[in-house]
Amino acid sequence: PVKIVKENVGNQAIRKLVNKLKINYFVCGHIHEAGPRAITRSEKKVRQGSWSDQIFYNPGAAMEGHAGLLAWNGKQMKYRNLKL
After folding, report:
1. In angstroms, rounded to a whole number, what is the distance separating the alpha carbons of residues 27 and 58?
2. In terms of DSSP bridges, do strands 25-27 and 55-58 run parallel, antiparallel, or are they unpaired?
3. Tens of pLDDT along 26-59?
4. How confident is the model at residue 12 (pLDDT cuts 50, 70, 90)?
5. Closest alpha carbon to 52 in 66, 35, 67, 70
6. CB count, 10 Å around CB of 19?
7. How far is CA 56 from CA 2, 3, 6, in A?
8. Coil, strand or helix at 21
9. Which of 15, 18, 44, 68 could form a disulfide with 40 if both were Cys (CB 3.0 to 4.6 A apart)?
10. Among 66, 23, 63, 74, CA closest to 48
11. What is the CA 33 to chain-centroid distance, rounded?
């Protein structure tokens, strides 16, 4: 049987550090099934192409042809998913 988990399954030590240091931008493709998408630290969805002062972005698995572009504007970031 397959267990479907809807909550955050990332590394708890990294999450603690992100919260302690109040990190606002984080890019990682470690959990392939979680991409391509972005959320805030409080796990609110960030829409592609929208400027945000917090982005935790997973472009998806490169081996499946996923990639992403990031743009900065002062203290805000936005992303665009690419399928290669």
Report:
1. 6
2. parallel
3. 998 777 677 899 999 888 999 999 999 999 999 9
4. confident
5. 70
6. 11
7. 27, 24, 17
8. helix
9. 44
10. 66
11. 12
